Amino acid sequence: MLVSFFTSLFVSITAIPVIINISKLKDLMAEIGVRSSHEELTPTLGGVAIFAATLIAYFIWDNPNEGHEIHLTVAALIILFFLGIKDDILILAPNKKLYIQIAASLLLISFGDLRISNLYGLLGMYEINYISSVIFTTFIFISLTNAINLIDGIDGLAGSVGLLSSLIFTFLFFELGLFAMATLSVALAGALLGFLKFNYSEKNKIFMGDTGSLLVGFLLSFFSVKFVAFNSDFIYNPNLGNDSPILVILILIIPLFDTLRVFLLRIFEGNSPFKGDRKHMHHILIDLKLSHGIATLLLIIFNSLLLLLFFVFRFQFANNVMLLGLFISFLIYCLAGYLLSKNIDYQKIDRVQYTKIDKLKRLQLVEEKKVSSRLKDPEVD
Length: 381
Known about the structure:
- The protein has helices spanning 2-25, 46-59, 68-90, 94-111, 130-150, 157-175, 179-199, 209-230, 244-251, 253-268, 281-287, 292-313, 319-341, 359-376.
- By secondary structure, the protein is mainly alpha-helical.
- It has one domain.
- Helix 2 (46-59) packs antiparallel against helix 3 and helix 2 (46-59) packs antiparallel against helix 7.
């Protein structure tokens, strides 16, 4: 597992500079728009390195207890990889992206029979039938995958959430003896750590793009469903827990809370929940003049504190009581977003708002910025 982690880290750090250079040469850069938190044209194919680093680090081993479901997961990842590449370069219609995500999810759910069939007594529900479990599990895959995509709006957030989550899943799978799952999870962690080095960089910045967010989101969905499904035999095995759904929600609480909060706000305002805006918590923190690093750190601290509270009190409360605690935490999260957003004067925010600029114009803007930098500082090469 350690070798997998460092192999993935090495591949990621080695591959990303090459991807950055190719992206700049071929003008494969992120568009700048009203929802952007950046004012520089930035390469957006970091997901290519995450994909390569994770799979190389995982497949160098003959992993024990691998199972057919991991093979299907890799097949689904390849489908999503090409979906992400096409979307990052050409932009796909949202409905086409959704259909392909559903197909990739059903590939694993149907052929791998990976389903959540037990709700562990949440709201009085335990076993659920096959059709309901397939629909529910597909919903989880699509929701989590897109939730990761939606928080990928500032430097470090999606990568940090993915890194924290994959490290926790590594520990959980290792404790359960699921060593192939632990190796895949730690390989993802190494790839994301390497990516974050460049995502936070000023001179060699890169975004993970839809390629990266789809892959990271799908893998975290896979880990979540696998962990919950594996623990469904908790009645017969003292090593398993009956609170795995609560733990999974807490591990991924930032993307889940933020997506739910934004969707509810949009619906309340009479807009489509899928219409983009700057109501995400990370956008609010950035508009309050916090740096990307500080905004990400605050959200990760919030996630970590809730996880810490869970591990302190997990044996003292029933699942439904902890679910109530999650609901109260969500209300506090929404209240914090409301109070913070009241302090923002959106009319005074100076943001670059040029969209749909053709390639030639974008290249001209890059050259103009270089000339401007040289005039301000003649020593700048």
